């Protein structure tokens, strides 16, 4: 069954009137959760929706393994102090099942218990008031060449962002020699790409495809055409570990992908 997800814009109210000094060691950094105290299941980084954490100014945001969140972090004069109060956070309200729901709750609890942090060889460790390790993070990979992706959604240019049984069939590979190949749902496609990691610009061009006709799944040919059109509209990219987002010249999300 096709799902059309309309872009959600959440306006965050002023959470606190106090001005906090920005921590230069944390500012403008992004992290992917690697381990979580009390979590004994599959590595958090290998779950379909890895948990993340990002710092920008005095703002903290990320994905808890289920929902996106946004809030503030605070510090004191004590070196490497850090508080991430979850009661001051705003988040999306998706319902998740099983491991994702459990990880989400445990992760947010760990953030709320954090009173300090440690940075060592690009590994971020959050600690509680007794100095015990709550969670560890690595910096996510940002490179594009030599990566393989599963398409999660695309913008159809009309109603919004589409995720369906057809996107589950879509794949995409960025080769190291500037070629892009994949499956658009029915046909295989091929073309070229250029990108600039300094400003995250990207151009996907010279797209061609095989000429098969598929009747199933429903609407696969229509979705294939819209997906390929969305690809060629991409002007910027943002990779954060296992996630890749392509956006158009207006900054609108056009394709979302997950690392295979």
Word description of this protein:
The structure is a single chain. The protein is mostly beta strands and 260 residues long. It is built from 2 helices and 18 strands. The protein has helices at residues 98-113, 220-232, and strands spanning 3-5, 29-36, 52-56, 59-63, 68-72, 90-91, 116-120, 123-127, 133-138, 147-155, 161-163, 171-174, 179-183, 188-196, 201-209, 236-240, 243-247, 253-259. Residues 5-19 have low confidence and may be disordered.
Task: Summarize the helices and strands and which ones pair or pack.
Elements (H helix, E strand, L loop, with lengths): L2 E3 L23 E8 L15 E5 L2 E5 L4 E5 L17 E2 L6 H16 L2 E5 L2 E5 L5 E6 L8 E9 L5 E3 L7 E4 L4 E5 L4 E9 L4 E9 L10 H13 L3 E5 L2 E5 L5 E7 L1
Antiparallel strand pairs: 1-11, 2-3, 2-9, 3-4, 4-5, 5-6, 7-8, 8-9, 10-11, 10-12, 10-18, 12-13, 13-14, 14-15, 16-17, 17-18
Protein name: META domain-containing protein
Organism: Candidatus Thiothrix anitrata
Pfam families: META
From the alpha carbons, calculate the radius of gyration and give it in angstroms: 20 Å
Taking pLDDT < 50 over at least 5 consecutive residues as the criterion, the unreliable ranges are: 5-19
> H/E order of the elements?
EEEEEEHEEEEEEEEEHEEE
Q: Domain count, please report it.
A: 2
Q: What's the tally of helices?
A: 2
| SS class | mainly beta
Amino-to-carboxy terminus distance:
23 Å
pLDDT averaged over residues: 89
Give the tally of β-strands: 18
Shape: elongated
Question: What fraction, in percent, of the residue positions are helical?
Answer: 10-25%
CATH class of the largest domain: Mainly Beta
What's the CATH architecture name of the largest domain?
Beta Barrel
**CATH fold-level name of the largest domain:** Lipocalin
Q: How much beta, percentage-wise?
A: 35-45%
Task: Summarize the main sheet.
Answer: 10 strands, antiparallel
């Amino acid at each position: 069954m096709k799902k059309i997800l309309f872009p959600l814009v959440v306006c965050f109210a002023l959470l606190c009137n106090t001005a906090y000094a920005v921590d230069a060691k944390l500012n403008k950094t992004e992290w992917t959760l690697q381990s979580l105290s009390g979590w004994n299941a599959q590595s958090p980084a290998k779950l379909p929706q890895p948990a993340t954490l990002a710092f920008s100014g005095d703002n903290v945001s990320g994905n808890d393994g289920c929902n996106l969140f946004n809030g503030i972090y605070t510090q004191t004069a004590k070196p490497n102090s850090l508080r991430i109060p979850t009661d001051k956070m705003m988040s999306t309200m998706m319902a998740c099942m099983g491991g994702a729901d459990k990880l989400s709750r445990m992760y947010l609890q760990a953030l709320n218990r954090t009173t300090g942090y440690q940075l060592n060889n690009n590994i971020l460790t959050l600690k509680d008031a007794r100095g015990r390790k709550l969670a560890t993070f690595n910096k996510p990979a940002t490179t594009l060449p030599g990566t393989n992706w599963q398409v999660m959604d695309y913008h159809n240019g009309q109603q919004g962002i589409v995720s369906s049984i057809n996107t589950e069939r879509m794949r995409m590979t960025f080769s190291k020699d500037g070629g892009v190949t994949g499956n658009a749902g029915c046909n295989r496609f091929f073309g070229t790409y250029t990108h600039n990691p300094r400003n995250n610009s990207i151009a996907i061009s010279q797209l061609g495809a095989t000429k098969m006709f598929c009747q199933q799944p429903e609407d696969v040919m229509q979705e294939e055409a819209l997906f390929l059109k969305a690809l060629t509209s991409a002007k910027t990219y943002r990779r954060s570990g296992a996630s890749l987002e392509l956006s158009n010249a207006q900054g609108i999300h056009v394709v979302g992908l997950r690392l295979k």
